[in-house]
Amino acid sequence: MSHKLMPDRPAPQMSLPLVGGGRFDLATETPDAFTMIVVYRGHHCPVCKAYLTQLSGLLEQYEAAGFSVVAVSMNDAELARRSQQDWALGQLRIAYDLTPEMARDWGLWISKAFKDTEQEIFAEPGLFWIRPDGRLYLVDIANMPWARPDLEFLLSKAAYALAQDYPARGTFAT
């Protein structure tokens, strides 16, 4: 069962292999502003292809704004490599082998395939900004492939959030 993440609290752990070698380990990221984790459904998803292609085109701007960026899926190494190559994602880091347990820790929805072209199980989209100290800042989780935040709009708000010391929202618990 998934659970609700709380902004301004420590993000769950995440350490995954990267296409091309190395690992993405959230605990060792050192961005000036935020680490942005974009969870995509997998190589089977044409909406993911369009979204990650757009993200790849904005990567330099995100990095200039102080972000470290990674795209993550439950794909295996081969499917992740094919996504990187077939979708021409350039320098965008692609992590793979997200487990169902890790997906649940991040509050993600998990789906079972209903078409032959889909992976047997996969995480639905999510986008997270994590502060350098490991606290969640932005949490956006969807249960459908086409419900995703606008990447250009988010980028346009990053400088404001940092300059105004805008707090993480949604932290009031009753």
UniProtKB/TrEMBL annotation:
Source species, domain of life? Bacteria
SUPFAM superfamilies, sorted: Thioredoxin-like (SSF52833)
Q: MF terms per GO, please?
A: antioxidant activity; oxidoreductase activity
In terms of InterPro entries, this protein maps to: AhpC/TSA, Thioredoxin-like_sf, Thioredoxin_domain
Which Pfam families has this protein been placed in? AhpC-TSA (PF00578)
Thioredoxin domain: from which residue to which, for each copy? 5-163
Q: What is this protein called?
A: AhpC/TSA family protein
Native source organism of the sequence: Tritonibacter horizontis
Organism placement in taxonomy: Bacteria, Pseudomonadati, Pseudomonadota, Alphaproteobacteria, Rhodobacterales
